[in-house]
Amino acid sequence: MRVNTAYMIGYRLYLAAFFIFLVAPLFAAGMFAFNDSMFPSLPWKGFTFDWFFNDTEPKLGMFHDKRLLRGLYYSFVIACWVSVLSVTVGTCNAFLFVRSRLPFKNVFYIMMIVPLVIPGVILGISILVLASTIANGLDDAYDIDLGFLRPGLLLVVLGQFSFITTISSLVITARLRKFDASMEEAAFNLGASRLRVLLTVTLPYLRPAMIAAGIVAFLVSFENFNTTLFLVGSESPLTITMFDRMAKVGSTPVLNAVSLFLMVASGLLALVSVLVQRDKSTG
Amino acid sequence: MKHRDARRLSLILLFTPFALWIALLIILPHIGMGVLSLREKVGPRQYEFGFGNYIEFAMEPIYWNTLLRTGWMSLFVTAITLVIGFPIAYYIAKIAGRRSRGALFLLCLVPLWVSDLIRAYGWILLLRETGIISGLLQWAGLASQPVEMLYNDAAVIVGLVYTVMLFMIVPLTSTLDGMDDAMIEAGYNLGGSRLTVLRRIIIPYAMPGIVSGCIIVFMLTAGSYLTPILLGGKNSSWFTETIYDQFITRYNWESGAAFGFLLLAFTSIVVWLGLRLSGQSLATTMARD
Fold first, then answer.
1. Domain boundaries B60-286, corresponding CATH code
2. Interface confidence (ipTM) of the complex
3. Does domain A66-250 have CATH number 3.90.550.10?
4. A60, A54 in Cβ contact below 8 A?
5. What pLDDT does A83 receive?
6. Where are chain B's structural domains?
7. Which residues in chain B are contacts of A239 at CB distance < 8 A?
8. Identity of the residue in A29, A109, A121 whose CB atom sits nearest the CB atom of B283
9. pTM for the whole thing?
10. CA-CA distances (angstroms) from residue B275 to A166, B17, B133, B210, B213?
11. A41 and B125 in contact by Cβ < 8 A?
12. Residues of chain B with C-beta less than 8 angstroms from the C-beta of A29
């Protein structure tokens, strides 16, 4: 390819500008976590860790803020459930679409992808409507009150699960497609049972994809807002708690501290998922 | 014979979770929402079947204006994201050396690991009157007083482009990555200018990636809630906000459900048109690997 120097310099500058654009808001959100001021804005009043560790109002640090910690806890519980459920169903789906002789496979495959293209707000309200309709119906007809069908943790988990499963299915399916069937045949020829082959050959092969899918599911669940917003009960996960504070109270740098904490934590998790996948694909 | 029974049993066992998931969490809720949207409230706890909620939408310009505005702005955001993202994807897939390629790609993914909320918060801190950009402008002498750049459509567009950028870059990069350099080389050797090669060779080859990127970006933008509400002003209402208002603030679930359906129908039609015009299908664009 003919390389024109001025053209390449321009291209590189564009690239640099783009990455500044990518990093700038994250940098802004993280930076003010250390500003010794009541407001997350300039001027810079000096460096402090108060927004993480201070235990008295008005500069209550995030590790002493009960509501934020409770939000963190609920987010964690929800994300664990969602990732376990979606990886389980995603693994079944992978076998269903790669291995089985399912009739109308292509139609079902498209149905599996559809949840990803439905706006999250719509998923949220449709599940809310169905659950409330059932709960109200049972309440009116038989006087049974099923509290778990009211907005709360279960509905949030189901709502997030409904589209995150598509992601985990796609990740695990992609890996299973690359599987060399002769490995299983070899095990069968050596006299291994079906279950044993599954447990000792196929699932270990899928493990990196399952771990990566689980991590992605965890992160997407942790960050989700749109679907959660409609299904949330009194147990608000972190994103909802933060949003309430941002919209109503006017923010203090404690939100920046939480942001930085989440960025670092999810960055580490992302790194783990990348390493897990890379490690196995070469070996 | 026994083998076939085992196959059938395992098929049923594998199909059950899939069927439960799709039926209980996707199909039934949407049917329920459709039924609810066709109920008109005629009195306290009294309902009638009818299209009243949809008629209400059609009669009230503020509702369909919001939907149209959401649609236009989403298309606009999609176009900008494509124009900004394509050179980046091309650089990563075709120009960057092997070692920097992975690093650049990972760098593009960085915003994915951060919640929408934090991204929007970051933009608030940058753009608002007391924000960083305003401060920098004053420090550089380009502005004599604080500049408010938040709470307008431009801020919403910047925030949305930022939020959805990587969903454009990932499919573009993976499509361009599969392209043989010899094709581009041949184009140049045959005397094609840079523009001709781009238009006649690279873009047609990247079409599946472009379409899938555009679909995801459009759906995410049209269905977004946080970015418009946090960065937009009083006049820049997004259709999802209207849905939220009907559901939570006014507790008018019937019309909220109708609005939800309209948003879904609207975005589906746009996606279907996009697939038709580009000659692609959902299965080939969304899950090529």
1. 1.10.3720.10
2. 0.81
3. no
4. yes
5. 93
6. 1-28, 60-286
7. 115, 117
8. A109
9. 0.84
10. 21, 30, 40, 11, 12
11. yes
12. 118-119, 121-122, 125
